[in-house]
Specification:
About 50% of the residues lie in helices and about 15% in strands. With about 230 residues, it is of the alpha+beta class. The strands form three sheets. A three-stranded antiparallel beta sheet has the order 3-4-5. Strands 1-2 form a two-stranded antiparallel sheet. Strands 6-7 form a two-stranded antiparallel ribbon. The protein is elongated, with a radius of gyration of 21 Å.
Amino acid sequence: MRTFSSSEILDLWDRGALLHPLDWGLLALSAALPPVSEDCADWPLGRRNRALFELHASCFGPQLRGWSACPRCAETVEFDLDAALLMTAAPQHSSSTSVMIRDGQFRLPTSRDLAVVLRGDPDTSAVRLLERCRISDGVGGEWDEAALSDAGELLAAEDPLAETQLSLDCPSCAHQWNDVLDIGGFVWAEIESRARRLLWEVHTLASAYGWSEAETLSLSAARRAGYMRMVQA
């Protein structure tokens, strides 16, 4: 997994500005991975998320620092995770790309499947996702709550990194809840933060020295920081 240059960070941020959040991680992966014949939008979600964890660790470090709002009292609850430990805890995805549910065969969901399902009614998204991933028919019947729960457990067992659940505790009201870790959002937040810092450096150094964006970005991060300290002194 290669890292991004300063100019590539700005280019990614610019290209992703109008994209749906679901596409941010895919955009970053397509830029970081070597050219392949398959589209990462068609990867099972666990494979995509593992690659995003690796990308975050390579480009921005393994620590994932974030926060969530308590659903009871709205208190901000911070968390700090290690991407390397998360990947170690979850086994590598098996060679299988499908799972048997109620005697029917279903392929593992992909980012493309989520994009299609998100455009519809959220109350029926789980059923529509399963039906979209159906390969062969099995036992009929309605997708009631119990059946959906069983299907979710089977998919999670086959593709454990498809969804990472965080167990959080509120220090103010002692409420406990689970939240989903959005690793694509983490990667994009790092890209956006770095891009905004680069824009500020370009603006500051261009104002002081008359350098172009390309000239400023061609400097190493250490040299830009040195010039920034002199300008701001």
